[in-house]
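pinned: reference chain
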Amino acid sequence: MKPLPAVDARDIAEILDEYKSNGQHRMAQVVRSVFSDIFKEAQHAGEVPPGYNPALATKRPKTRIKRQRLTLDEWHQIYDLADKQHRYMGNAMLLALVTGQRISDISRMRFQDIWDDHLHVVQGKTGAKVAIPLSLRNQAINVSLKEIVDRCRDRVVSHYLIHYFRTTSQGQRGGPVTANTMTTNFTKARNKTNIDWGEGMPASFHEQRSLSERLYRKQGIDTQALLGHATRAQTDRYNDVRGKEWITIAC
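pinned: its structure tokens
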């Protein structure tokens, strides 16, 4: 127990070190941020001198990226199994690769969101509004968005592109497939493959967003606009293959 003015950077660093030693680097970031906010409020309240914030004097913990990126060959292996297991999973994976959108946005895509030959997406995470032309074609798999939309139109009456074909314990026929269900089924298909993920965590459904960005960048598509990022730096993080693929030198 210490008065706030007596707390220094060493005190906070010791707390952060405990989290880091346990491998909880992300939690250490959160704790440091909370301490920073506390001292900001303490300054406003006059409890500490203006500018006094020992949390900011500590080194910001770095998170260790452990999840592996997804290559196109690995995507094909997972897709083949997922599509056989559930046709809606094949549709979902195609949408993920061709639109580059997040899984939560894919689960909410509706046929009524299509007009003027564009699929309109209001991203749930950022609120960004992205209009994707149906003519957009991912050359790596030679599939257009229109072809996927046509594939999603089946004999089941539904508002949603990704929907259940029959009633199950998870949802009604024609109802939307949740992001959690897609994540679970992607994981099941992924685990049935013989892909060696090395020491890293196996790629998740979300890694298709990074793969999509990398493939479209090679096509010359404006991936920042497609992914709905506010800055180029955000998009560039998706382009980082984390040492997974060879860099080919042009000559």
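why pinned: DSSP finds eleven helices and five strands in the chain. The first strand starts at residue 114 and ends at 115.
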